[in-house]
Design goal:
The structure is a single chain. The chain is mainly alpha-helical. It has a domain of about 50 residues: Arc Repressor Mutant, subunit A (Orthogonal Bundle), CATH 1.10.10. It is about 80% helix and about 0% strand.
């Protein structure tokens, strides 16, 4: 009976060992399966990702070339837009042709200064200034210098004519026609007819009073009779007052 128990014990021990071995095999197999399964997805993702990355790089390379081309076009465009600005100095070139003040001859400048003085003090006409500047008995400037002076003098010829007319009226008590003739005469002031007419139309004077002052001057300095004075006042070769103005002067001669 004893040997039978020992045989059973040995059988139980063998069976237990076999179970343990089987359990270890199962556990190892699961581990291997789990390890193998975990590697495959990563490998698949890596394999799938690589073409995508390559495609992305290829697209970036393809896209990069047009971008560079566009940058080159954009860089060239401003050069064309700036071309008019580069030509701007050429448009300003005519301004350089204008003579500078330093290029004006000294004689021209002197003539201009003299002309300005004559105009301001004596209210001369343009032709009168030219003759004065070029006269051998006066300033003796060259014709070119005198012409430069009268062309550049700062004056109003109408106002010069008016100032001259006022001077003749106040100092010589001349008539309206007499002043006009003096202003336009080639032996007088040599103003233009329109300048002299402006003076006659603008001047403020009492022509009757001018006639009376002239009559008294003839009486006191030349001892002329009233009738001789009347004739002198109205003569076309004399004072050229109107008949009414001369009559007023004779009627008030002794007043």
């Amino acid at each position: 009976m004893v040997p039978a128990r020992n045989g059973k014990k040995k059988g139980l021990i063998a069976a237990g060992c076999g179970c343990v071995v089987l359990f270890l095999i199962l556990v190892g197999g699961c581990s291997v399966f789990a390890f193998s399964g975990s590697d495959d997805p990563k490998a698949a993702e890596t394999t799938a990702a690589e073409p995508a990355e390559l495609d992305g790089e290829a697209e970036e390379v393809v896209d990069a070339e047009p971008a560079e081309g566009e940058e080159l076009v954009e860089d060239e465009a401003p050069a064309e837009e700036e071309s008019p600005a580069d030509e701007a100095p050429a448009e300003e070139a005519p301004a350089e042709d204008a003579p500078a003040e330093s290029e004006v001859p000294a004689e021209h400048t002197s003539a201009l200064n003299s002309a300005q003085s004559y105009s301001d003090l004596m209210h001369m006409s343009k032709q009168g200034l030219f003759d004065q500047l070029t006269s051998e008995y006066a300033d003796q400037f060259s014709d070119e210098a005198a012409q430069y002076a009268v062309d550049n003098v700062d004056t109003d010829w109408n106002e010069n004519a008016l100032a001259s007319a006022e001077s003749y009226s106040e100092t010589m008590h001349m008539s309206k026609a007499g002043i006009y003739g003096q202003l336009t005469s080639e032996h007088g002031e040599q103003f233009l007819s329109e300048e002299a007419q402006y003076a006659i139309d603008t001047i403020e004077v009492d022509w009757n009073e001018n006639a009376l002052q002239s009559a008294r001057s003839y009486r006191d300095t030349m001892d002329m009779s009233p009738e001789a004075i009347r004739d002198q006042l109205t003569s076309e070769y004399g004072d050229q007052f109107t008949q009414e103005q001369a009559d007023y002067a004779i009627e008030n001669l002794d007043g």
